[in-house]
Structure formats: C-alpha cells, structure tokens
Design a protein that fits this description.
Rossmann fold; 5-stranded parallel sheet
Length: 258
Amino acid sequence: MKVLIADDEAPARQRLRSLLAAEPNLEIVAECADGTATLEQALALRPDLIFLDIAMPGMDGIQVLEELNRVWSPRVVFTTAHAEPAVAAFELEAADYLLKPYSRARLTAALARVRRLVPAPSLDSTPPFADPDADPAADTLVTSPPATSPERLLVKSGSRYHVVETADILSVQAAANYVVLHTTSGKHIMRSTLRQLEADLCPRRFYRTSRSTIANLHAVREVKTSSSGTHAIILSDGSDLPLTSGLRELEHRLRHLS
C-alpha cells in the first residue's frame, strides 16, 4: 500500500514512520505538516491509505477528508490526542481512529482492518493531474470569457475564505476536479477545472503551457531545452512548467505582453 502521513508534529511523523518500517508491503509516498499540503498531495498521489492527524494548521483533518470525499473516498486512519472528534471521523467513514500515544500492536490492528476493507471507490481511470479537456461534462460548464477578467479570486480553505489576487498567481496546475494555485504567498487549492479557470483569467497575462498547466507570463524568466528537445518554462520562484504548446507561440505572447 502507498501511504501518506499527515501530522503537524515532526516527532509524531517520525514515530509513525519508524513503526510502519516494520510492516510489510507498505511504501510511504509523502509526509505533510499541514492540512492544505495534505489535500494537495492526496489529490496528486492518490495514496491507498492516509494517516491523518485531526489537529493541523490551515485545514484540520476532518476538513481535509470532507474535501477529499467530494472527489474520491480514500482509506483514512485518523490519529489524534483527543477522543472527542471520533464521532465525526466515523461519520466520514474513516477506517480507524488511533488515540495517541498508540502502541505498535494497535497500529498493526488498524492496518489489518484497512487491508480487510473493500477497496475504496476512486477515480483510478483519471490521472492524478488529469486533463480537464478530457472531461465531457466540462464543456457544459464553460461559457464565453467574461467581458472583464477578475482581479481577485475567493478560495475556500476549510471554514475560511482567502482572497487571492490574480496578479500574484505564478502558475496553475490541474488536480482532478481541483486546481492548485501557486502564488507569491504560497499554495491554494480551488474547486474548479483548469478550463473553467482559464476562461476567467486574463488571456493577455495567463498562458496555457500544457494540457495541465497555466503560467503567468509576467513570471516567466527562462525557457530551457532538454537533450531530448523538450522545453520547460522557468518561473520567477524557480519552479518549472512543461511547455508543449509551442515555443514560437510563447515568444509571440511574451513580445506582446501588456
């Protein structure tokens, strides 16, 4: 099983990692220290099992699972120091609930319970970073571009809403029915297809570099060519995006950037 560990305390992650090392047929694919990163990694990697702490900054574990259940129902074992949220955890169909400090025997029992479960429903046919153009339903949701593009987006994170300035967005990456906004201040996850968001963003500023990524042209700093002839865009934060839409088109867009 591919396992994701989510806990805001490094010692707790280390202990769980060491206990899991003794278990057969497990691979830890990611560790996260906050709710937003957990949601992002879970959508991207689709692990078979998530050990999910309830008390985390940003979004708590309950909120993370609520958001995941909108897209795909993962197998989750909650880990927490408090018993009070257990009812909410099982209402979300968590596989088990480990109360800290838990023993090796209790962890092994939780894993045995997970392995007995029928595989959770998933979107295995959809790649982790799916092509939103492949979704036939997306066409019914897309209208002509608005007369004016929004300067701000309202992005929900748990029970709060964050205002994201579109000028601060460096790039956008598709993640199933969500998009990940990479901004100058951090990452935000928004429920939208890439095509829907592309229709809203200013076409003079934002450019579709590939089937699953959009770049802010103002953030482009370099274009690299690999030995195989493929291209990648380097942005102002040092990140890179694949460029499959054509170097000549990008050059034209940069020349006429306003």
